[in-house]
């Protein structure tokens, strides 16, 4: 006669865990890799609560007696809030223009077969090989002739053009995976091309639009090269351009520099943590033909 085994006993009975050297090595490598990013960020934030002398002499020590004079100086003397607003206006406008233009272009390239379609794809891929430095002189000349230097448009339009190719290719790849049955059902229900684009393709493509907007915003927000050339006026200067002037304007105040870097990076990092899931979903689904 077999002994009766209680269901609770079966539930709590678990197999012994096996230690795997391969998994441990992978986790060890990933942990070390993550520290190469996490520790520099912690080092910047920690030094932002020190005066310049302590940053020079004890840069790796913890700020046990934090001071907030650097943050007060950042907002009162160098007007970092104004630079924040300029960056949000320029980067936000760039994202909106890129999404609108690349949405229409991606829809046309992914859902229509027309003469010259392959040529357009070839041109788009070829433009990715052109370095941004090679376009500075002609772009700057165009901005001078259109009186857009040292204006919001002087940075919005070049960044929109620079990010448009990437956005079109990614969005077109995602829209190509949308089932044709959905498109045929919309035609049966009486939708025209415009209604189908607005009511079906744009809502279904929200993950890829979110992914593109994140990348475009980060690239535009961190574009120091264009900011120094096209908008060097203080009233329209973005925050990345402000960082490059702190060292020359205030000498060797390393505490203030660490504060400015922290104020620049932390908000973007927080936004990224909340919406990072859209990046993986949008890019992976758009990369596989369904």
TrEMBL record:
List all membrane-crossing ranges.
21-45, 88-107, 119-140, 160-179, 200-221, 254-275
Q: What is its main location?
A: membrane
Question: What top-level branch of life does the organism fall under?
Answer: Bacteria
Do you know which InterPro entries this protein is assigned to? MetI-like, MetI-like_sf
Q: Keywords assigned by UniProt?
A: Cell membrane, Membrane, Transmembrane, Transmembrane helix, Transport
**What is the membrane topology listed in the Swiss-Prot or TrEMBL record?**
Multi-pass membrane protein
> Which Gene Ontology terms describe the biological processes this protein takes part in?
transmembrane transport
Q: List localization entries.
A: Cell membrane
Tell me which positions the record assigns to the signal sequence.
none
What sequence ranges are listed for the domain ABC transmembrane type-1? 84-275
Q: Which GO terms describe its cellular component?
A: plasma membrane
| tRNA processing as UniProt keyword | no
Among its keywords, does the record have Cell membrane? yes
Tell me which family the UniProt entry assigns to this protein: Belongs to the binding-protein-dependent transport system permease family.
**What PANTHER family does the annotation carry?**
ABC TRANSPORTER PERMEASE PROTEIN MG189-RELATED-RELATED (PTHR43744), SN-GLYCEROL-3-PHOSPHATE TRANSPORT SYSTEM PERMEASE PROTEIN UGPE (PTHR43744:SF8)
Q: What's the protein here called? A: Carbohydrate ABC transporter permease
């Amino acid at each position: 006669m077999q002994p009766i085994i209680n269901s609770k006993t079966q539930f709590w009975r678990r197999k012994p865990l096996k230690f795997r050297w391969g998994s441990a090595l992978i986790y060890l490598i990933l942990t070390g890799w993550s520290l190469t990013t996490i520790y520099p960020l912690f080092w910047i934030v920690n030094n932002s609560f020190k005066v310049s002398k302590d940053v020079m002499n004890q840069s790796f020590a913890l700020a046990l007696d934090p001071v907030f004079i650097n943050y007060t100086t950042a907002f009162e003397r160098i007007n970092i809030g104004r630079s924040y607003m300029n960056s949000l206006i320029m980067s936000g406008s760039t994202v909106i223009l890129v999404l609108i233009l690349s949405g229409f272009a991606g829809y046309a390239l992914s859902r229509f077969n027309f003469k010259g379609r392959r040529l357009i794809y070839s041109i788009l891929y070829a433009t990715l090989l052109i370095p941004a430095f090679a376009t500075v002189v002609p772009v700057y000349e165009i901005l001078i002739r259109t009186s857009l230097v040292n204006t919001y448009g002087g940075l919005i339009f070049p960044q929109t053009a620079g990010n448009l190719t990437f956005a079109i290719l990614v969005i077109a790849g995602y829209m190509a995976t949308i089932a044709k049955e959905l498109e045929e059902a919309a035609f049966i229900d009486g939708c025209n091309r415009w209604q189908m684009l607005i009511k079906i393709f744009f809502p279904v493509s929200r993950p890829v639009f979110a992914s593109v907007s994140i990348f475009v915003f980060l690239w535009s927000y961190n574009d120091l090269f264009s900011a120094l050339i096209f908008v060097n006026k203080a009233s329209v200067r973005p925050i990345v351009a402000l960082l490059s002037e702190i060292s020359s304007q205030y000498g060797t105040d390393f505490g203030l520099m660490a504060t400015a870097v922290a104020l620049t990076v932390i908000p973007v990092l927080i936004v990224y943590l909340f919406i990072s899931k859209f990046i993986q979903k949008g890019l992976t689904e758009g990369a596989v033909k369904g």
